[in-house]
Amino acid sequence: MFSGIIEAVGSVVLRESNGADARIRIHTGRLELADVAIGDSIAVSGVCLTATMLEKNGFWADVSGETLSRTVLGELDVGSTVNLEKALTLASRLGGHLVTGHVDGVGHVVERSEQGRSVRLRVRAPEELARYIAPKGSVCVDGVSLTVNGVAGSEFMLNIVPHTLEQTTIGGYRAGCRVNLEVDIIARYLERLLLGERAAGADYAGLTLDKLLAAGFGRNGSGR
Fold this sequence. Notes:
The chain is mainly beta. It contains four helices and twelve strands, in the order βββββαββββββαβαα.
């Protein structure tokens, strides 16, 4: 688990393709590795990766074909910058929100505008993720825990303060940038719980208004 509070910005220094998957070496910049062991998890722009080899100022990780196809890691070239966070310990402060490092989908920046010393971003999420993103809720963008300021359909608005702009890769975002998205874990589990026993059915396709009404969550708690 992670908190979405970025500890350092690193970069991809080497990438080796192995058929359907890949192996990458990450330069970790100022990230302290003294307490990291082989097999530990490190979030790379929101993707939980396992350190398979440690070096003085970096680590190697294997990236599966599934991860390459479902996240922006498949698009990173040598020299690309990445947000880094080590896994939480039980003694860690939870400054952001609970983040699993399991990316739900890839969105893209629609608009960037300056707002005083801050930056306002409008991001479009895949339609299937839109129902999990709520105003004043949390969302993880490239590993960064952020508060949703507003929602319009599948688009949501973010206000990025100067510290976050300076300490993460978000400072370089422009319209068209593709970003890893992880929705709030509580929203995902709540949907599953509301479906009850029907969640185990072969026709499970997520929570819908009809399913909520049939379960008694309509007016007067009596369905339709």
